[in-house]
Amino acid sequence: MWRISDSNEESIILEKIKRRRQCDNQNEENEVSEDRLSDLPDSILLHILSFLNTKHVVRTCILSTRWKHLWKRTPAVTLYTSRFSISKQFPIFVSKILTLRDTLTALHALDLDCGGVIEPPLLKKILNYICSHNTNLQELGISVTGDTDLVMSCVSSCRALTSLKLSLYPRGCYNSTPTLFPKSLNMPALTNLDLTNFTFCGGENGCAQPFLAFSRLNSLVIRSCTVKDG
Q1: What's the order of all strands across the beta sheet hosting 76-80?
Q2: What is the fold of 40-228?
Q3: pLDDT at position 220
């Protein structure tokens, strides 16, 4: 009698365990199928997307209708030619990004890395876009071989920058002629500066002091730079 009772009790317990497992598996399937990421508010999603390369950001539009136009409102734009296997695709992509991006969305960061020569029309288009959206621009990175004077003219108009990274090589100069760094730039909020291939001019005392105007500067990196008349 005791054995029969124990057997019945064991069967009941096993059945309960089985049902519990089925219930847990069902809950796990529901959690997997539930799109929790898309339920996040736009502000958080846009913050997450701002850390990605713009090409990858645009690809998120295929996830669902929720993501279809979200990329147009990201506060950061990252444009790298290294992300394109065919060089002709890059200027087409950049033109569409700058044209379709939401005009009411403030631009906080832009990073351009061409890894070589950039065609003048494309460079002008990007720089014009920067100049027209520089009110809230805080982070700017440009690494190109092209019209360095045009680049520096654009950079000088970005007064709100807190971080600036420049790697500039004049087009057609095979000896990597350094770009002349301006004696003064009006960037009172600048805290991080990274420069490659620049020349700094010395003053009347024979010393080059190009960073005195940056009172908040706490990080400075210079590579392949020279001093002239100092």
Answers
A1: 76-80, 109-117, 139-146, 163-170, 192-196, 219-223
A2: 3.80.10
A3: 95
